[in-house]
Amino acid sequence: MKTPVKKRRSYRSPHRAEQAEQTRLRILQAARKVFMARGYWATTMAQVAAEAGTSVETVYAAFKSKAVLLARSVGAALSRDGKGPIQSAGAAAVRLEPDPVEQLRLFARDISVLLSSVSLIFDVVASARVEPEIGALYERMQAARLENLRVMVGWLGDKGGLRDGLDADAATDTVWALASPELYRALTEVRGWSRERFETWLAETLIATLTPPTGRRRPAARR
Fold first, then answer.
1. What integer pLDDT is reported at residue 4 of this predicted model?
2. What is the pTM of this model?
């Protein structure tokens, strides 16, 4: 009778796993830098590898293709302490603020900081969206941005912050247009605005456009 052969248990070294994660993060940082400097079409995996101080084989093993690398770079740019924009501490402050006007000021501050770090990588995606895989990424990004802003408008509506006759869809479209990466880049890069000036303008424009006149704000909805 044959002695049963014991299966060898796989062993995953925590140290190696940590090293692999650090390498992945270094590649993402390098990719974002190269993509923003050169654009999607001119960027090569070899350039990213050189910037990250690793081999091309390592970059391909971690991310498979340049399109996947761009998608992961966008995700990393949007992540804030490991959380998405709508789960971040800044978004939580907007949700919890009882006054609609102050909600919009907090939102303008939070989104301006985010736009200052992601608007250029968004432009890289937009400029390459004729490629099907990048085009699909662009659509996902826009859909996610719209849904996140819809949630924020819901928070505003819960506090009685939408003027009479303005429904949530129209309000969401307004915020989507005014707080866009494209408009942020146009005003800061073309017109030379500072991030702080954009933040102030965005807050005042949203307050004037979305909220009821002073003294006519509806009480917050009961839950």
1. 54
2. 0.83
